[in-house]
Amino acid sequence: MGEAEVHALRGVDLEIRAGEFIVLLGPSGSGKSTLLNLLGGLDTPTSGTVRFKDHDLSGASEAELTRYRREHVGFVFQFYNLIPALTARENVELVTDIAASPMSAAEALEWVGLAERMDHFPSQLSGGEQQRVAIARAVAKRPDVLLCDEPTGALDYETGKLVLEVIAKINAELHTTAMVITHNAAISGMADRVLRLGNGRIVGEEKPARKLTPAEISW
């Protein structure tokens, strides 16, 4: 930032196992989104190494990172990033057209409970329904990793629970590795592992005694 050097992350040493459900907690500016962007191949580190299986993401070209994102990663953000002029089905088909062996858009939307809404436009859907379309778009290509940055941040309590149920289902039934950034500590009860970030470092790691279902979580 001008002449000021900001270390968004420093000294992070982390291993993520296939099929894990990980929740990232921490205040704004703690490095959560930067970590997610590095793991998703959206950013590259100034130093250090980021690896996914046999992919060295830290030394990858932009074309290699694009291929990695296309083949292995699904992204879900706080704001849905749907194209207003396209129906739910067409928004999901944007991904299925470029994936190697995707599920159909109809199947992906059925996974998130929107089979009867697939021909509706975003303006005809509630916030929770739009977020579930975004999740369907992310999982339609059958990603190894699902990265979610505040997926319930713009939603009310009941709608947020529906979205969490979808993410938990994808993790459990498709064995997709899921990482969820949240400011909401209650969501950590769903996780296999909780990582707390502060000042660009991992300052705590917890493993809940029992993994809760979304229905058991209240905030």
Helical content band: 25-40%
Low-confidence stretches: none
Count of individual beta strands:
8
Structural class: alpha/beta
CATH architecture: 3-Layer(aba) Sandwich
Distance between the termini: 36 Å
User: pLDDT average, as an integer?
Assistant: 90
What is the CATH topology classification name? Rossmann fold
Radius of gyration: 17 Å
| CATH 4th-level superfamily | P-loop containing nucleotide triphosphate hydrolases
User: In which order are the strands of the major sheet placed?
Assistant: 4-5-6-1-7-8
State the major sheet: 6 strands, mixed
The count of domains is 1
Strand content: 15-25%
H/I helix tally:
6
Order of SSEs: EHEEHEHHHEHEEE
Principal-axes geometry comes out as: globular
The CATH C-level class name: Alpha Beta
